[in-house]
Design a protein that fits this description.
Layout (H helix, E strand, L loop, with lengths): L17 H18 L1 H15 L2 E2 L9 H7 L10 E2 L2 E2 L5 H18 L3 E3 L5 H16 L1 H8 L9 H11 L3 E5 L16 H4 L1 E5 L10 H11 L3 E5 L9 H11 L2 E5 L4 H5 L15 E5 L10 E5 L1 H7 L2 H4 L6 H14 L2 H22 L4 E2 L8 E5 L7 H10 L2 E2 L1 E3 L7 H4 L2 E5 L1 H6 L3 H16 L1 E5 L5 E8 L3 H15 L9
Parallel strand pairs: 1-13, 5-6, 5-7, 7-8, 8-9
Antiparallel strand pairs: 2-3, 4-10, 9-10, 11-12, 12-15, 14-15, 16-17
The chain binds pyridoxal-5'-phosphate.
The site of pyridoxal-5'-phosphate has 12 residues, from helix 5.
């Protein structure tokens, strides 16, 4: 099968400038080389490595040369704390333009009443959202009872009274082993310290989200925030149902669509599966399926907009103006019809990958996928996630290990490998190529066995890959990669 040009840079805006982009990179690397050659070398090597490996990490992608080039400018040099038109620094007129354009594209693309383009990353976007929800929700009636109008007018003593009075900083989010994210209230993240957290999980039989159990948990726990979204759940979510549950218990619905924002932008997830019209606050990263620069965004309903706007300097440092500019470019790309073809192909390819695994006898969490993620249970190969991840990497297949529900190997060694299709779809891979990827992965895993610990036990980390497997798979992967080059026409 040949690559569908509509999904690759062959059709993306700016692709006709491949030679111009090549010249720009050559010049940039020459300038960098004159100051610190090791950085120029590492930058060149990273492109070579990315070109030569099967990148199946579900949270990664390849941003377009237009997006990447946008980040390398003097916009980086400007401080611009505050909001559009209200900065703590003088001379921010161009940053105002950049942020206005980024927010405008985000509003238009996602149909959101309000968009905030400043968050430096997904975690930062979630922090902004948490603050905004707390600030908005405590305004009434608790503030009235204290005789103040706005949360910013509270004294230290008032804050203390308020925290004691509120008694509800409860957050209900998806459990980590069902696919939730650390920022959804878990200990290694500040959200686990700010909030009393409880989790909802998935049905032990089907692995699917159990909405009735979720509703029961919400009724009992009465969270201030019900958080939807995931990092490793391979299925779509009905956000209309989540909103109904939130409304019933008086919670704010926050959806973290960091992983699947590209499928929302590309209109693969619509209606009940589009979180933006249902959530009070939606957060996202811009660098995963959305295919932009590393960064975050917050989208909000009007009642949360004022508080979201205080993200900087409340929880964020000065905006990264060069990255906001690149977000604007990426969002403009995502508004092109070609992005919808890309997003649909990401989902179709995930199905092809899942089918490729299933027909070769592998076990998948939930039995398949209907988004961009496939979660393979590697215990059926007698391996831990750690062993499988390493054996695949030795063979040129880049993935990450991941917990599965009720994981017998815990969160470090894990029992799963998470696969994602956004990056290789950008290279032009289609269903046939993803079936071949499944075949190669199964070949690696069936040729890998755990090693002994040396004291008679079986190691969870050490493994032995049968001789010749890595070379064979590397060669087969190279064929697929050469037929679908990364950044075609770009030469350093
Ligand atoms: N939210 C979700 C659902 C994620 O999967 C991730 C990253 O993996 C994040 C937030 C954090 O994003 P970042 O690494 O940009 O802070």
């Amino acid at each position: 099968m040949t690559a569908d040009p509509a999904t690759t840079y062959a059709a993306a805006p700016g692709a006709e400038y491949a030679e111009t982009a090549s010249q720009a990179y050559r010049a940039a690397l020459q300038v960098i080389e004159s100051v610190e050659p090791r950085i120029a070398a590492a930058t060149r090597k990273e492109l070579a490595d990315q070109r030569d490996s099967l990148k199946l990490i579900a949270s990664e992608n390849y941003a377009s040369p237009a997006v990447l080039l946008t980040m390398g400018s003097w916009l980086s040099d400007k401080y611009a704390e505050g909001t559009i038109g209200h900065r703590f620094y003088a001379g921010c007129q161009n940053v105002d333009t950049v942020e206005t354009v980024a927010a405008e594209h985000a509003r238009e693309l996602f149909g959101a009443p309000y968009a905030y383009a400043q968050p430096h990353s997904g975690i930062d976007a979630n922090l902004v959202a948490f603050w905004a929800i707390l600030a908005t929700r405590v305004e009434a009636p608790e503030l009235a009872a204290l005789g103040v109008k706005h949360v910013n007018d509270l004294s230290e003593a008032d804050w203390e009274t308020l925290r004691n009075k509120l008694g509800n900083q409860r957050l209900l989010g998806m459990s980590l082993d069902a696919g939730g994210h650390l920022t959804h209230g878990f200990r290694p993240n500040i959200s686990g310290k700010m909030f009393h957290q409880r989790s909802y999980g998935t049905d032990p039989e089907t692995g699917l989200l159990d909405y009735d159990a979720l509703a029961d948990a919400a009724r009992e726990f009465k969270p201030l925030i019900l958080i939807g979204g995931y990092s490793a759940y391979p299925r779509r979510v009905n956000f209309a149902k989540l909103r109904e549950i939130a409304d019933e218990v008086g919670a704010t619905l926050m959806v973290d669509m960091a992983h699947f924002a590209g499928l929302v932008a590309g209109k693969v997830f619509t209606g009940d599966e589009d979180p933006v019209p249902h959530a009070h606050v939606t957060t996202t990263t811009t660098h995963k399926s959305l295919r932009g620069p590393r960064g975050g965004l917050v989208l909000a309903q009007p009642e949360y907009a004022d508080a979201v706007d205080k993200g900087c300097p409340m929880v964020l440092g000065g905006p990264l103006s060069h990255v906001m500019a690149a977000k604007a470019v990426a969002l403009a790309e995502a508004r092109q019809p070609a992005f919808q073809s890309y997003a649909q192909r990401v989902a179709d390819n995930a199905k092809a990958l899942a089918d490729g695994f299933l027909k070769r006898g592998a076990r998948l969490v939930t039995g398949g996928t209907d988004n961009h993620i496939v979660l393979l249970d590697v215990t059926s190969f007698g391996l831990t996630g750690r062993q499988a991840e390493s054996a695949l990497l030795d063979s040129g297949v880049v993935t990450n290990r991941n917990s599965i529900p009720a994981d017998p190997n815990g969160a470090w060694y894990t029992s799963g490998i998470r696969f994602g299709t956004p990056a290789l779809t950008t290279r032009g891979f289609g269903a046939e190529e993803f079936d071949r990827v499944a075949e190669l992965v199964v070949e690696v895993l069936t040729n890998t066995e755990p090693s002994s610990t040396g004291s008679g036990g079986i190691s969870k980390a050490k493994y032995k890959l049968a001789d010749g497997t890595a070379d064979r798979v590397h060669a087969a992967a190279a064929e697929l990669l050469n037929a679908n080059p990364l950044y075609p026409g770009l030469t350093l």
